[in-house]
Amino acid sequence: MTDFNQSLDRLGTDAEKYELRTTLFGTDKVLPMWVADQDLATPDFIVQALQNRLTHPVLGYTLMSDRLYQAIINWQAQYHYDVKASEIVFTHNVANGFHLAVQAFTEPGDAVLVQTPVYPPFLKAAPHNQRKTVTAPLQWQDGHYQIDFEALESIILEQQVKLLLFCHPQNPSGRVWQKSELLKLAELCLKHQVLVVSDEIHADMTFAPHQHVPMASLSAEIAQNTVTLSSPGKTFNLGGLQTGYAIIANPRLRRRYIQACQSVSILEPNLFANVAMEAAYSEDGKSYRDELVSFLQDNIQTVTEFFQQHFPQVGVVQPQASFLIWLDFSALFSEQSALKNWLIHEAGLGLNDGETFGENGTGFMRMNIAVSPSQLAQALSQLETAKSALPNYQR
User: Is the pLDDT of residue 278 over 70?
Assistant: First the structure.
C-alpha cells in the first residue's frame, strides 16, 4: 500500500509550484495549490527503475525500446483502445503535442476551436502559431458542463474551423464525457471535416462509476480523424521528465505530424522519461493508480464537506476525474480582483485564476488537491480563518 500521508518539503528543488509564488501571487507567503503537479511522492517503483538505470555509467543516446511501445499498447488496452506501435509518436509533453498538431494540420490564419472554460494552453496554441482561437463555451446544466451541439455546429460553419482541441476528461471541471456525447461530437467533426485532437492526460484518474472512453476507440472512421495525446505525467507525478506521446492511426496525418516534430528536432523523449514511462505503464502502475484514485476521492470529499459547512455559497464542481476542483466563488465576490486578493492575502492560498480558463471562468478558481491530508487541512484551516475578512461576513 502507498502512504500518501507524508508531507514533502519541495523548497530547494526548483519546484515550479513553489519558486513562482512571488511572480504569480506577489508573495511567497501562500500555500501553492495551482499548477497541476502533485505534492505527493513519485511512486517508489518508478524511482527504483530510474536508480537502477543510473547504475550504468553511460547516459548516451537511447532508442525507444519495443518494451516501451508495448507498455503504451497494454495501458491503452484497459480502455478498449487498440493501438499499434506504428501509430505512436513521442512528444515532450501533451501541451507540446497539441502545439505540434496546430502546426501540422492547420495553416496560418486558420480557426482552431476550443471549448471554455479550458486548460489555459489550449487558448494560446493557435495565436502562438499564427492561427486564430475560436471559443465555444460549454453550458452549465445539472451540476456539470455540457456541450451545446447546435451552437457548436454554428460556430464551426461560421468560423470555418479546421481543428478542435478537445479536453477529455475536461480540465478544469473534471468532467468525464459520456460515449453518447463523444459519438455526437465525433460525427459532427467528421461531417464538417474538423480534425479532433483529444487531450486525454487525466483519463487514468477517472472515478467510478464514470468510465473513460478514448475518442479514437469509437470506430475506425473516427480514429482516422482523431489525434490522441496522452502521458503518464499527471497520474504518476512525472511532469519534470517531459513524457508525452501522440497516437495517430491515419498514416497521412501521422506523416504530417512527424514532419512537424522533425522541423523543431523533437525526435524522442529523454532517457529517463523512457525508463519512467515504461515503469509507470506496468502492473505496479495499475495498482498504484487505483490507490491514488481512492486517495483523491477522499480529499475531494473532505473539500466538499468543508465548503458545505463553512462556505455554502461556494459552488464545488464535483470532478469525475483528476485531482483538480473547480470552485465557484461568484456568490461571494462580484469582482475577480477582490476574490484573488482575498485568497492570496487573507487565506494565504495560491490557486489558478478562473479567468485564465476563458471568459466564462470569471468568479471561479481551480484548486489542486493532490496533497497530503495535513497540507489539505492546513489550506482549509486558512480558508476558515479568512472568513472574517469577507465583505459580508457576520459573526
Answer: yes
